[in-house]
Design brief:
CATH topology: Aminopeptidase
Radius of gyration: 14 Å
Number of helices: 2
Largest sheet: 3 strands, antiparallel
Structural class: alpha+beta
CATH superfamily: Gcn5-related N-acetyltransferase (GNAT)
CATH class: Alpha Beta
Number of domains: 1
Oligomer: single chain
């Protein structure tokens, strides 16, 4: 991720966003991504998928 963020900054990107699953959420939080929204999507057999919209200001 550090390499991707560095390359993005070299190309003028200052803010990046992503969707993270429940499992990936702690990883992205540890990299400085902030939660913008949380959503739950119903899937088969009464189960649900929780995901998070996250953003990071690359200038920080």
């Amino acid at each position: 991720m550090d390499g991707l963020e560095e390359k993005a900054m070299e190309n003028g990107v200052r803010i990046t966003d992503l969707d993270a699953s429940l499992v990936a959420y702690p990883f992205y939080r540890s990299l400085g991504y902030k939660t913008q929204a949380e959503d739950v999507i119903p899937v088969k057999n009464g189960q649900s998928l929780r995901y998070y919209k996250m953003v990071k200001n690359l200038k920080d």
